[in-house]
Amino acid sequence: MPLWTGRFKKSLDKKTNDFNSSIPFDCRMAQQDIRGSVAHATMLGKQGIIDKSESDKIVASLKEIAADLECGALEIDMTAEDIHTFVEGELTKRIGDSGKRLHTARSRNDQVALDLRLYLLDQCKVLEESVKSLIEVIVNKAEENYDAVMPGYTHLQRAQPVTFGHHLLAYANMLMRDLDRLYDCKKRMAVSPLGSGALAGTTYPLDREYVAELLGLNGVSDNSLDGVSDRDYALELLSTLSIIMVHLSRFAEEIIAWCSWEFKFIELDDAFSTGSSIMPQKKNPDIAELVRGKAGRVFGDLQTLLTVMKGIPLAYNKDMQEDKEAVFDALDTVIMCLDTFAPMLETATVNRENMRNAAAKGFINATDCADYLVYKGLPFRDAYKATGMLVATCIDKGLTLETLPISEYKAVCDLFDEDVYTAIDLDECVKKRTVKGGPSPECVLAEVKAMKTKMDNWNK
Length: 460
Ligand code: ARG
Known about the structure:
The chain is mainly α. The protein is built from 19 helices and six strands. The protein folds into three domains: 91 residues, Fumarase/aspartase (N-terminal domain) (Fumarase C, Chain B, domain 1, Orthogonal Bundle); 249 residues, Fumarase/aspartase (Central domain) (Fumarase C, Chain A, domain 2, Up-down Bundle); 97 residues, Orthogonal Bundle (Ribonucleotide Reductase Protein R1, domain 1). The strands form three sheets. The protein has a two-stranded antiparallel sheet with strand order 1-2. It has a two-stranded parallel ribbon with strand order 3-4. Strands 5-6 form a two-stranded antiparallel sheet. The structure holds arginine. Arginine binds next to helix 6.
């Protein structure tokens, strides 16, 4: 039975009923719906809006319903219009007329706005743990590889030497900012819209702050129209989820490249790779590719909600029921991606030798060669040009800067001496990059330490 009988002479057309129903997806919010109702009923009793004895009965029964759902003794009726209808119906079934008093001074419009906030806040906790686990894996891998020299790239061309640990920590930094973004969006999410009613508040003497306090929220919304219309919190979460997927997709792309025979920088564990049905030699990085692909799906979810919300007038419109599937799908997807990515990275083996060999080719010490001349007093632009000429000579002769004879150096600039070979030595080039945030092994270890301090604070 819908909640809105009385005015209607016919029941809803069968297909239309299915079309209108949200229970197939809002059933996820059962526990949050009950929690919200417990707080609301408690407040109604405290304020004398309903009898304290009735409020106690409602609260006790709601708690039983929650427990029964949890242990499977009660199943959600999938023919109900939505989760709010189901819970209220079940309550009335159990305690009769007292149950009918629960919805006093409340509308499903403020109820659903609250439920979604509570559900997303709970899911944010799960998400945060997944982000943290991946950060931990990255930081440990970075520590293990703090001194593994690899080529750093711009335009996917070998550019300057870095360390694998440094490269990995770039992703840990991105994810740390993602965590911050989550914390920030939770601040605005943890606000109670209850008391907004359908749109125009209510005439009952509610204690809205008390409800918020019971629910562990930061406060109450300031405007009843906004309270029932606002889905910014879901949009902010979807934006944050999308940014996480931008980061994961870039990391995934690099892993895919590093696994190729062209790079061979890492090898994924068999448990996180797949084979081909026809090519017996294949070992494919499907998991990383799926993560890269699922980024598109999450961006689509953000786009869905932006488009649903765009241009709808105040206050509640049924369009807004479309908010849930998008944000649920994005949450599920991102949590799954993070939880698969972390062990895939943790179990990957790193081929330091191949990284180093790649770093030895491509003249990635050319900037260091130019810097050598700058330290000897030459203006950088002249030093750059002289080094460019040396690189051209090396290419002509099939040599590297390390194997080019000193006579060739001196022919280009008489400031060159034998010590240039130390200056352009790969390990030296990395070791010298000690500016804060740099790739030197020393800096990587300092960055790892700083990360671990932040991680220690998570547990406090
Ligand atoms: N299932 C609805 C939703 O998710 C609940 C709110 C219904 N409100 C209404 N006025 N029909 O948005």
